[in-house]
Amino acid sequence: MNEKLLEVNQLKKHFDVGKGKVLKAVNDVSFYVNRGETFGLVGESGCGKSTIGRTILGLYDKTEGDVIYDGLDVHSLTEKEKFKIYRKMQMIFQDPYASLNPRSTVREVIAEPMEVHGLFKSKREQLERVYELLEEVGLNRDHANRYPHEFSGGQRQRIGIARALALEPEFIIADEPISALDVSVQAQVVNLLKELQVEKGLTFLFIAHDLSMVKQISDRIGVMYLGNLVELTSSKALYDEPLHPYTKALLSAIPIPDPDIEESRERIILEGELPSPIDPPSGCVFRTRCPFAMEVCAEVQPPWQEVEQDHYVACHLYNNEVEDKTPLKEPAVQR
Ligand code: SF4
User: How far is the CA of 314 from the centre of ligand 1 (A)?
Assistant: First the structure.
């Protein structure tokens, strides 16, 4: 029986950008993460996925909706309660260099959260724990007295992971943890996160723009576009039977190593740029780039529906109430 560790319900995060304008970074997004699973959140830069991560952790106040962690509404906790709960929730950042203080040694970087939470009575015990953490992430104790700039990108991300593990969290938000790394190193970091998950029973929210890597680590995946969740299902169903045109376009951009499949594959060509979240399109937010856009798409926001078991999508192509599904123009599909 799955136990929900995190529930995000109809979350909105809007930013006032002045002159009466509002940037709708996150719009009515709902999903849950079961204890022990990895939930992937995918979409282009600027789609709101990192804002969701930061709002879950209380780094941003919410505009509307709820974030429920282990039964507690995190945005209505007292400061003392927040201090306790945020020990269980940690974050791994995209840029391991920017997120590590260059003037602190690796030992100081990893020990800092332990000091803030007063975890150890003696410096000796604390240092032993730093050594243990370095070994857990594939580094060694000799690295403790060195500075972040002395390490490669992959090693710096390992230091960031060790720091995130310092408080023995149960839930980790990994915000684009591999985007800044070379492809060869990306797989190593993903494998490390998978191993740590099994060893420590961790739950992950894995945020990324690259669907190919997210598949390797996620049990379920939510696809975001311009502040909205457009599809959500198991990792397998998303890859085998994607429904939303945006998901199909993202998937069709990933090269397949098998030349036969690659040759027969349909590519969906996305035209235009991501619109501004300050002035999103009416109806379906994807309609300005969707090859299958119909008349109704400009007028009515597509409902969030469960089309198959545990497979949710927001698209009028699957809306039984829309009778005329003729696209406005010939879809730009390449074989
Ligand atoms: Fe495309 Fe319309 Fe579906 Fe939006 S609702 S994804 S515009 S077909």
Answer: 8
Pocket of ligand 1 (CB under 6 A): 244-245, 284, 286-287, 290, 292-294, 297, 302, 315-317
Task: For 251-299, write each residue's pLDDT tens digit.
Answer: 887 777 667 666 666 777 787 788 999 999 999 999 999 999 999 999 9
**How is domain 4-88+169-334 classified at the architecture level of CATH?**
3-Layer(aba) Sandwich (3.40)
Angle at 13 between CA 9 and CA 19, to 5 degrees: 155
pLDDT tens-digit map of 220-235: 999 999 999 999 999 9
Closest CA to 244 of 271, 266, 224, 274: 224
What does the DSSP assignment read for 170-229? SEEEEESTTTTS-HHHHHHHHHHHHHHHHHHT-EEEEEES-HHHHHHH-SEEEEEETTEE
Domain ranges in the chain are: 4-88+169-334
Answer yes or no: pTM beyond 0.90: yes
What is the 186 CA–ligand 1 centroid distance (Å)?
A: 33
